[in-house]
Amino acid sequence: MKKRFRIKNNEEFQFVFKKGKSFANRQLVIYYIEKPGQSHFRVGLSVGKKIGNAVTRNRIKRYLRQAFQELEGQIKSPHDIVIIARNQTKDMGYEEVKKSLTHLLYKERLLKR
User: Fold this and answer.
1) What is the sign of the dihedral through the CA atoms of 23, 24, 25 and 28?
2) Coil, strand, or helix at residue 81?
3) pLDDT of 1 higher than 70
4) What is the 3-state secondary structure (H, E, C) of 27-64?
5) What is the enclosing helix (H) or strand (E) of 111?
6) Which residues contact 67 (CB under 8 A, 6 or more apart)?
7) pLDDT tens digit string along 54-93?
8) pTM of structure
9) Distance between CA 24 and CA 22 in Å, rounded?
10) What is the pLDDT, as a whole number, of residue 37?
11) What's the sign of the alpha-carbon dihedral 94, 110, 77, 112?
C-alpha cells in the first residue's frame, strides 16, 4: 500500500475515533469518516499487543494491507478508515481476513457496487 493511502499521525487516528462512525464483527472493528477534500481513501491499522507477539501482529497488518490493495478500486474514495484487529484474527489466514474486511466494508456501504 502506498504511503499516501496510510494514516500515520495519532491526531488523525483520534479524529476518526471521536468524529467517525464505527461497526464491528467478531474479528475486526472499523471506524470511518468521510473527508470531502481528499481524492482517495486512507487507511490506519491497529493491532494491539494482546493479539500476540510482533510476528503475529505484523502478519495481521500485512494481510489487511494486502486486502485493501486488492479492494482499492472498489472502495469509495474520500474516507479515512481505521481498522482494529480483535483477538480472533491471530488464528485467521489471509482469505478469512479479507472476507471479514469485505463484510465490514459492504455492511457500512464503503464498497462500490
Assistant:
1) positive
2) strand
3) no
4) CEEEEEEECCCCCCCEEEEEECCCCCCHHHHHHHHHHH
5) none
6) 94, 97, 98, 101, 102
7) 999 999 999 999 999 999 889 887 899 999 999 999 999 9
8) 0.90
9) 7
10) 86
11) positive
